[in-house]
Design goal:
Blueprint: H1 2-11, H2 17-25, E1 27-28, E2 31-35, H3 39-50, H4 54-70, H5 74-98, H6 120-138, H7 143-166, H8 172-194, H9 205-221
Antiparallel strand pairs: 1-2
Length: 222
């Protein structure tokens, strides 16, 4: 609902004062081309932003699918890249539909070429990291491990989106919209994955305990 509200305002040609204010707060008052903070922070933000790049997200998706295949969850392993690719395609279509220009009140600290709304880095990182994080968490027994995995996925998503604002290549509303759609897409994908045939098959508490009993019986017989 928040994404649709922001999108409708943008299609009408409206702008948000908070967008301009936040971008200007992240630059020195004496020179809008220089971001606030120490010199190393700019380099760190560039590196964090790269974590939401299409190449790295594709690699992570393939690695996660490989893990699911190794865990004998073939259906989920096939569904994961399909759902993420569909989300990426939707992000590209949104950019074409809204065609919002990039921020022009501060200098861009990295090169960009596509439209601004919604943030592709924010949306795609939410889709990939939240989906993969939740699938990996389901394979864990310890609640603390599950919480850790999900927390890492959320922190990565928030950090990547925030870095795009710091670098001046997105309006804050672009990033918020990307988070909203990306998280919603990830939640929908997880609901579907949970209902896929064989989604519960593979490595889990039951299969592990069954294997232990089988090995124990073989040792006893020998």
């Amino acid at each position: 609902m928040l994404f649709l509200k922001l999108g409708s305002e943008i299609l009408e040609g409206d702008s948000f004062a908070i967008d301009r204010y936040l971008l200007q707060c992240l630059r020195r008052s004496s020179d809008s081309a220089i971001p606030i903070g120490p010199a190393w922070l700019r380099s760190a933000m560039v590196d964090i932003s790269a974590l939401g790049g299409i190449n790295l997200l594709t690699l992570i998706t393939l690695l996660a699918s490989g893990y699911l295949l190794a865990a004998r969850k073939q259906v989920t392993a096939l569904f994961l890249p399909i759902s993420i690719a569909a989300g990426a395609a939707m992000s590209a279509l949104f950019k074409i539909e809204y065609a919002r220009p990039r921020p022009d009140i501060v200098k861009h600290l990295v090169e960009v070429s596509s439209a601004s709304f919604p943030s592709g880095h924010a949306m795609n990182s939410a889709i990939v990291y939240l989906t993969v994080g939740a699938l990996l968490a389901r394979a864990e027994q310890a609640p603390r491990v599950r919480i850790y995995i999900i927390s890492v996925a959320i922190c990565l998503t928030l950090a990547i989106g925030s870095s795009r604002i710091y670098l001046g290549v997105h309006w804050p509303s672009d990033v918020v919209a990307g988070w909203c759609v990306g998280a919603s897409w990830a939640a929908m994908a997880l609901l579907i994955a949970h209902r896929l045939p064989g989604a519960r098959a593979g490595v889990g508490p039951e299969s592990l305990s069954g294997s232990s009993v089988y090995l124990s019986n073989r040792d006893h017989e020998s």
